Amino acid sequence: MAPQSRPTLASLAAQLGVSIQTVSNVINNPEAVRLATRERVEAAIKASGYRPSIAGRALRTRRSWGIGMRLHPVVDGINGEVLDHFFHAVTESAQAKGYRINLFIAADAVAEVTALADMQAAGAIDAALLIDTGLGDPRPKLLTEVGLPFATFGRPWGETFTKHSWVDVDGKAGSYQATRYLQSIGHERVGYIGWPAESAAGEDRRAGWLAAQAELAGELLQAHTGNSVRQGSLAALELKKQGATAVVCASDSLALGALSVFAEGAVLGDELPVIGFDNTPVARAIGLSSVSQPVEQAAALVVDQIVGQVNAPLDFSAQGVLLSPSLELRKWESMVASQPSRKEI
Amino acid sequence: MAPQSRPTLASLAAQLGVSIQTVSNVINNPEAVRLATRERVEAAIKASGYRPSIAGRALRTRRSWGIGMRLHPVVDGINGEVLDHFFHAVTESAQAKGYRINLFIAADAVAEVTALADMQAAGAIDAALLIDTGLGDPRPKLLTEVGLPFATFGRPWGETFTKHSWVDVDGKAGSYQATRYLQSIGHERVGYIGWPAESAAGEDRRAGWLAAQAELAGELLQAHTGNSVRQGSLAALELKKQGATAVVCASDSLALGALSVFAEGAVLGDELPVIGFDNTPVARAIGLSSVSQPVEQAAALVVDQIVGQVNAPLDFSAQGVLLSPSLELRKWESMVASQPSRKEI
DNA sequence: ACAATTTTTTTGAACGTTACAAAGACATGT
DNA sequence: ACATGTCTTTGTAACGTTCAAAAAAATTGT
User: pTM of this prediction?
Assistant: First the structure.
């Protein structure tokens, strides 16, 4: 009634001379309304710019259309780009299905679950999306106990608790492909630079290289280290000493470091004997080949899983999907990471 | 009543033998309740794990405690890290004040405003946070017309519409400081590598270098280019030809490129004659000096501004805050970006 | 002991929506 | 004309919360 206030079902109904329920039906159950009435109501809705109140709707239906997602601490930055991309894709997929992403921060896994449970209790979210599952991750079990629907980006590692929906990328397949490629262009002694064995995803990536190199029955040249560029360089130097002529790396950061060792003598346009992981912008800029994760597809699938669970919470057909990454081949484009031959520029 | 359902004010009240309003008061207006009653109610609340329904609350109070924030397309990645950090800090600040961040995506500025207006109409958000203001940005004006409280990270550039709250970092002061530092360690011919003149933030950063170099009355050596590492290298090469001995760059990406030209002959531990901007992890890894933005402070302030506007929408005391960046000085740590002298490792 | 005052608690209504059931309109077959 | 069935519309109630005002209880002063 008040001129300033936003339109509601009641105000529209009064204006049109129909009942509130009829207007509601036009929105939620159009087939139940006679065509003539429907069109009249739809026109009024459009003209008024009416939007259903999510509070009113949530109160009545007990659905918030919110998905809780923890914003992890800023990680390396160079590798966080994959998560960045994933975030974007998830938000897009969720939005397309009518869901909104609710961000929050938490200090650790337990605090994350507590925060999610609180948000659920408050009716702020219908489900959660977990990122970056690790070995023995406690969150899936806890969330299941709480009764909050969820899916994870990252498979369940180890035996802890596996009855949930997840999407992950097959790191093993990626590094296998990368290693085989380096072999195919003439490298027999392909080394691997990766993370400590505690990292489940890291071990997965290592397994692919291992499988490919084992086929050649040569010496296995590998290094476990941190994720910095510097550490990549140091590890690369060591592997080169041991006779490696090329390396597959667990990340682009490590690959960037390895370049300074393995790109020696190469000129712009060459295929570099180093392959990274995650296909970050840095790799693109430099012309570094890298294993690319199908981030958008993963995001779409994980949102599908979440929506499915929200709509059918009883149907406990938890499923996992393992996506295959692809190898992005490139030639050296930029002179970073080694002294360029000046004439090439 | 039902054993499964979550506690509500009504269920608590019934259980305690008090009225609903009393329980509500314990939560929102504790001073109004007698101590003995209050403690009894508080104990029951804690024991039951009760959380107020945000839907019920929002419906009644017309406050959603949501802040809309657009997730921008993944940018360079190497520089997006600043935004990443800002996102994190904003979420943390907002959460500490009881607000939740609602993510969404939009194709362009107009779509962003439309989406925000829709969310406001639906009662999903109370306010918006705009990021990355550009020259002639249409959003502040549009949002003001819509009547949605907001603040921006980024000052209003140009004359378009300035009556709004904002927080920004003084890029000019940062590059001035950087240039002066390079001068102080012996460089007279400090060049500048920046972005095209269309970039308002870029021009701001350039202005600081300009001011510092103008004081020496020497030749002004500068280049406008894109933001890639490669372009940084090319520009650096050109400036070096013209006689520059050091450069200040508009970003760490550019600085990374410039290093391959200006770090020639340097050894690990040297102070590099290149200074970047935004203090990204890459700069940290390499040992590149960089201008650091006070991201967390900016986030806290912009959230303060938003909360202030939500609570006092009539008080139109739009204010801008300009924060000073700091110069992070480093010494060359990693061998990326140039051939390392092998013995140093 | 009682009126006046203050403190504490309760009552009733409303925020906007949808589920459910019932009523009304309309057509069909006898 | 009337019962029967289908299609369309409407009334009532409820989701959980807070506001405003009224009622009840406790405190104070005389």
Answer: 0.90
